[in-house]
Amino acid sequence: MLSFRSIAFFALVWLAVVPESQAQSIWHVRRTPGNKRCWDEYTAISCYKGICTVAGIAQRDTAPFSWLVFERSTDEGRTWMEQTPAPLGSFCGNCTSITKLQQIDSLHTVAQADSSWTTQNGNTGTIQTISYFIATTDGGKTWSRPHWPDSLWVMDFHFSSPLTGIFVTNNSIYCTSDGGERWEKQIVPVRGGPEACHSYGDGMFRVWGHAHGPLYTTRDNWSSYDTTQPCYDSSVDAASKTLFGSCNFGSGDTIMCYGIHFSALNPSIHYGSLARTTDGGSSWTHFRIADSINAPSGNGILYTTSLDHDTVYAAGESFNHWILRSTDRGATWSIDTLLLDTSMNVLETDGIAMTGDGHPLALFSFRDLFINPTLIFRREQDNSIVTTTLSALHPFAVYPNPSTDWVNVRSSTPLRRVVIRDLLGRPVLYGMADVGGEARLDVSKLPAGMYELETEGENSTGKISILR
Question: Which of the residue ranges 137-141, 252-256, 296-300, 387-391 would you say has the lowest mean pLDDT?
């Protein structure tokens, strides 16, 4: 008789706002890089209603070694089809990544590729970066490089329609009303230089200044504009720093800027931070992960889904096995634990987006020998997933996680018992499974912290890292 010990990690933290049904959801793999050797295979994702596109740079074993790769889905991210327009050198030289992608409508998509190199000046080197734009107007059948001002490093861009758009460099604002055939440079003295932008249509644009704003708004194509105060958090000690490098612009005056917060006591410790306004920047509400959620230190928040849905997700590069989830358009947040239908461990998040039917998609990369393949994931409905994913990949599910009272263990194979151990390996709690292969443990008396949950069963093997 074979026995196995399947290991799951879970944290006991106070998260009363996280419902049990949320912990039962599963992120399903919807697309893999296949047999191609690649690095940062997909680095950008965007959706327009049910049509989604991801983009990246694939590294092949044979010449030409680098190719642009686009994947397109027309069914809310359930299935994908690869679109490989041309070798990378046909569009830009030395391009290292696709840094942003926008699915404008069902036919029009724009991607930004950055090319970086180092110039030597004596014993020192300076990194130079130039941005290129790659676009399709026929749903990805053909791709081309549209006209764009040369030798610029683009900080951000956005189109409100295939004709009307804006992009910003670290010192300039450019707008177009003819799909990019002509770009008009706007003379606006942005504090610290522009860092994020948004086109609303009908002459309305917004630009965010470096790190703290302020927010600049025009409703007449920059003939005039309004300026808010910079976005500082008065509750933070002056020695602390919060830098907002990106903004998520809703369809109205709701805007959420996000970035990183450095601790005043220990600058090497840093957490994600968000600031939200519902009045166009006149007032801001701040949310720092370390103050509100018992979560590990990370590299800040780099990605969020659209504010046009009630449910919004936020993630950072090294969030590993969790992302943030809000059900009130960013007013409050909680941890959404990553339960994946793969035994691979998430290395980092490379992008997130929301489909028209409200399903989040994510790009998660994994360590695989010397490369980091990126997989496309889709978060499925809660109730249908717990049963169908109890398979050879995941013989059991643990929920809710994190928990403050009860932990449920559900298995597709017979279980004998469940053991919870502390990080020193000492058993702190035992539980017996019923005839249906389920166990329920009361963890309310355990101190808050990290634990190891082990199951002992028959005729199967498996491992899930829920949270660490």
Answer: 387-391
pLDDT digits (tens, 9 = 90+) for 157-167: 999 999 999 99
Tokens 């491992």 correspond to 463
Give strand ranges (E) for 310-399: 312-315, 322-326, 334-337, 346-354, 360-366, 374-379, 396-399
First to last CA, the chain: 31
Tokens of 187: 């003379």
Q: How far apart, in whole angstroms, are the C-alpha atoms of residue 309 and residue 320?
A: 24
Tokens of 122: 């004596």
Chain segment 197-220, per-residue pLDDT in tens: 999 999 999 999 998 999 999 999
- Say which CATH topology domain 1-26+390-468 has: Immunoglobulin-like (2.60.40)
200 and 255 Cβ atoms separated by less than 8 Å: no
Domain definitions of the chain by residue range: 1-26+390-468, 33-388
Which pTM was predicted?
0.75
Any idea which fold 33-388 has?
Methylamine Dehydrogenase; Chain H (2.130.10)
pLDDT higher for 304 or 295? 304
DSSP letter string, 9-27: EEEE---TT--HHHHT--E
**List of residues 6+ apart from 118 with CB closer than 8 A:** 125, 126, 127, 128
CB contact set of 290 (below 8 Å; sequence gap of 6+):
261, 263, 271, 297
DSSP at 77: T
Residue whose pair of structure tokens reads 């295939």 in the numeric block: 162
Torsion angles phi and psi, residue 290, rounded to 5: -65, -30
Contacts 24+ apart (CB under 8 A), 78-87: 78/30, 78/378, 79/30, 80/30, 80/31, 80/54, 80/376, 83/140, 83/141, 83/143, 84/58, 85/134, 85/142, 85/143, 86/143
**Partner residues linked to 344 by β-bridges:** none
Dihedral angle computed from the Cα positions of residues 231, 234, 235 and 237, in that order, rounded to the nearest 10 degrees:
100
Cis peptide before 373 (omega within 30 of 0): no
